[in-house]
Amino acid sequence: MKEECERRGFTYLESSSSNRASRLNEGIKKAQGDWLVFHHPRSILEAGALEQVKKLREPTWGAFTHQFDQKHSLLNFTSFWSNKIRGDFSKIYYLDHCLFAHKDILKQVDTPFGEDDIFEDTVFCEKLNQIEKPLRLKYRSNTSSIRFQENGIYIQAIMNQFLKIAYKTKLNRKIMNKIYERGLNLNQNYKSDKF
């Protein structure tokens, strides 16, 4: 991974942080450019997406338009909901939208992604919404549906709704993330599945 990043002209940063939120916060502190794009590891941005961010004239933040890599009515609805309702209406986007922000906006927030094991994207959006409302660019973020494939489309959809309720009711974040990661460990590799 390190060699591939350096070959492509990127700086590779190693981190001992225990969760993704802390790693993202570390990256923000080390970043040197004006614009930061938080590229989700299982998402592919449409050609031209990064150039569109660079063309933005004012410091702002936002997300790209979400789309799954598989076609299914529930997946299509989930993308619609996350783009139009949760996103455009509530101003909360998922990390797999591939969030972006200008450094001047990020400087105004302490630990933009929070410190919890899950819902770091929601924390990010809630904090930045207090400064400025986001943009959603039309360029697509084509995201893997692996969780839906592995767990079953309807089971994963129900789990997602349960976790949103758990977030609002302030359930223990580590327990929530262990439920989310169980059997997949895509973002966090816990040593034990026991709670």
Structure characteristics:
single chain; 195 residues; alpha+beta; 5-stranded mixed β-sheet; 9 helices; globular
The largest sheet is: 5 strands, mixed
Using the CA coordinates, give the radius of gyration. Answer: 17 Å
Strand order of the largest sheet: 1-4-3-5-2
Query: How do the helices and strands follow one another from N- to C-terminus?
Result: HHEEHEHEHHEHHH
In which range does the helix fraction lie? 40-55%
> What is the average of the pLDDT values?
89
Bulk shape: globular
Number of β-strand runs = 5
What share of the residues does DSSP label as strand, in percent? 5-15%
Given as residue ranges, the uncertain stretches (5+ residues, pLDDT < 50) are none
Query: N- to C-terminal separation?
Result: 32 Å
Structural class: alpha+beta
Q: Number of helical segments? A: 9
